[in-house]
């Protein structure tokens, strides 16, 4: 085994610190080099120990995790996995953390069963491994929507195609960046981001309040239309049905596909079955794994226009890479160019 991943655990609860260190004691490629009960101790330990990855609690005394993260990302950017409480009130703080440059997050396990804890441990180890190889963006100023550059909405803004976007790790930020470059009267956009239920509502609300177009969490029977972006509901696959020329969302709680629900594969395939090739554009953004790649290949083979995010602008070049290697991608583009390309293709 090569060099181990050096991990620093930052959490104010001695119980959680002990539990997390036990999770990593079982892995032979990750070594816990230190633990810190608050951000001030963490700062000293980062200097002393030069860890590769940090796990960070969102809520802590003295200085909360977000304040610490924002300082860290300005002064010494490094891969951080947030360990948060998966609640409606915790969701905005976790989304803030991702906006500041945290690579990923995981919910603290509820002490319900050994099986659940085993799943948590496995997921956390995976996320730390992935974070160790992730591209961390230093904290920059937050971009604002393009005002003025966007043509005023007119009655004749017509789009021929629905744009379907798949993403995972690093995706909440990539989606926000991408939508900043899209006109207010945007093509119909449907997005499957791997995200838990309470987060999808919070994420959609946040985008809706910061962007000129309407952004909604998917709901049964919600219409896919111009000027509207729809985010898949956490824990439900996003499928579609047609009624005449109109397309509507269908929420499906069938088995996970590629270990995910919502799954990008399910969304791409549903559109592929429903729509002719000249009515769809498919986009793959940053993410771990290969969910959606095979379905994107099926779309591509039918003649659907396809784009994927390039390696240097992706936090994790997993899903776009898998699609690219299958020959499913027409153009590999930096994140900054995707909005214009997909909007042009949708016309």
Automatic annotation (TrEMBL):
Q: Which domain of life is it from?
A: Bacteria
Family matches, as SMART domains: REC (SM00448)
> Response regulatory domain spans which residues?
6-123
Its primary localisation, in coarse terms, equals cytoplasm
Which compartments is it annotated to reside in?
Cytoplasm
Top-level EC class: hydrolase
Q: Note the PROSITE patterns from the entry.
A: CHEB (PS50122), RESPONSE_REGULATORY (PS50110)
Query: What PTM annotation applies here?
Result: Phosphorylated by CheA. Phosphorylation of the N-terminal regulatory domain activates the methylesterase activity.
Active site positions, chain numbering = 168, 194, 291
Domain CheB-type methylesterase, by residue range, is 151-347
Q: Quick check: keyword Cell membrane in the entry?
A: no
Task: Give residues where 4-aspartylphosphate occurs.
Answer: 57
**What's its EC?**
3.1.1.61, 3.5.1.44
Catalysis: reaction(s):
L-glutaminyl-[protein] + H2O = L-glutamyl-[protein] + NH4(+); [protein]-L-glutamate 5-O-methyl ester + H2O = L-glutamyl-[protein] + methanol + H(+)
Q: Which keywords are on file for this protein?
A: Chemotaxis, Cytoplasm, Hydrolase, Phosphoprotein
PANTHER family xref list: PROTEIN-GLUTAMATE METHYLESTERASE/PROTEIN-GLUTAMINE GLUTAMINASE, PROTEIN-GLUTAMATE METHYLESTERASE_PROTEIN-GLUTAMINE GLUTAMINASE
NCBIfam families with a match to the protein in the record? PRK00742.1, PRK12555.1
Free-text note regarding domains: Contains a C-terminal catalytic domain, and an N-terminal region which modulates catalytic activity.
Q: Which family does it belong to?
A: Belongs to the CheB family.
Quote the function comment for this protein. Involved in chemotaxis. Part of a chemotaxis signal transduction system that modulates chemotaxis in response to various stimuli. Catalyzes the demethylation of specific methylglutamate residues introduced into the chemoreceptors (methyl-accepting chemotaxis proteins or MCP) by CheR. Also mediates the irreversible deamidation of specific glutamine residues to glutamic acid.
Name of the protein: Protein-glutamate methylesterase/protein-glutamine glutaminase
> Can you name the source organism?
Thalassolituus marinus
Q: Which gene encodes it?
A: cheB
